[in-house]
Amino acid sequence: MKALVNTAADTLTYMDYREPVLKLGDELVQVLYSGICGSDMHAFLGHDARRPTPLILGHEASGTIVGGLRDGALVTINPLNGCSTCPSCIVGKSNICSDRQIISMPPRPGAFAELVTIPAENLLEVPSRGLLKSAALTEPLACGWHAVRLGLRLQEAPVSGLKCVVLGGGAIGVGAALCLCAMGVQDITVIEVNPLRLETLHGIKGFEASDGKDARSPLPGSVDLVIDGVGFAATRGSACELAKPGGVICHIGLGSGEGGVDVRRLTLQEITFIGTYTYTPQDFRDTGAAIFAGQLGSLDWVETRPLSEGQKAFEDIHNGRTRAPKIILIP
Prior knowledge:
Layout lengths: L1 E7 L2 E6 L9 E10 L2 H7 L10 E2 L3 E6 L8 E4 L2 E2 L5 H4 L10 E2 L12 E5 L3 E3 L6 H4 L2 H15 L10 E5 L3 H12 L4 E5 L3 H7 L6 E3 L12 E6 L4 H10 E9 L11 H6 L3 E4 L5 H12 L9 E5 L3 H9 L7 E5 L1
Helix pairs in contact: 4-5, 4-9
């Protein structure tokens, strides 16, 4: 099969690669769409020791099952798999299982390839072929769905009256904003500093878009719920500044691990800071259902490119040369 392999830092090689080995309980999926995630970018840049080269990256995918009783079924992939026996898995939180695995991280190759294997229970059926490209967004949008769900359950005021801000206009941030809208929030602002991407965000319904300096930008100390979809010291600092007394910050982004948290302000103003990692299996199913029902909008803000041009796609994202919040690669 053909695959896009991370062979060294800053290097992706489109090449012939051995087909994945089908294990008991797995399904073989022909990948039709596979999105580029921020964690893929970290690995590409050589910043993720959990993803040593050579490795097939990619974990946001949809396609069709090949072989077996479900041959030809249209599916999207939940790439995260727990042990199923620990206390976290038993209560439905396999996302925080200490023995969790995810495709694109050893021992499971990722989905920047023509074929990938995944446990059968990790596949969510897609109602129609026309939804397959949108279905590839289930994974990143589920991250936002999970964060929004955790952040809203701590609010004391009615959801419709909340002021919410999302930092970052990539797929995680846009998805979080669309999930806020789907769950009844009316005052939503996405802050994005890349002017190319900001132009795209202005055309998406459901929220306002701002560069953080214009008239749309919320005032410090005025926001009920801040979602940091970037995760750098600067965005953590902004989140701490924007949250109102008693407000909530949900931190999704994994941009860097240090700096930015104003612990003194969090303490004196009783601001809740929540780390949110991926999604539960139920969050993934709920996000898929919302996508298929059209509750998260048209999802037409993605750009597609051939898998063979993956190197340039990564370089364009890294250098801020893309307008789309998400690039999806097509094998």
